[in-house]
Amino acid sequence: MIDDFKTSKALLDKTQAFADLNNYRLAVQSVPFTPSPTETYLKETFLGNETDPPGLSAESSDRQDSIYQIDIFTPKGQGGKFAGQAIANLLKIEFPRVSFVLNDGVQKVQISNVSSTIINANKTHNLTVISIDLIVIAVNA
Residue 112 above 90 pLDDT? Predict the structure, then answer.
């Protein structure tokens, strides 16, 4: 059975380490957060999905295709429209394609693709979105 907690915790820990190293605050899913209009900050969201057994037996491993999203908010007027893309490029190094975020012998979380898009967020911030596509496999004993 796939444990979404283990998956989201592994991703959060990796993102939090990046945020701490670069002095960014991280808005965590379901936790109240009030940003300053002049700060660069990150926001994370784990978008789990339905679990499918690739095999026909009850002992078959479970597979889930999920998305982990990191939103990069950069203040307008500081670094221009593409300031978030520079941070996105650093995050792509932290989350390389085909790498494992978690591999504990029971559950594996592998990155299958990483992409980014620049979006106009609001009056104070530009938004760059990183989408990290995941393949999650859990071994059923």
Answer: yes
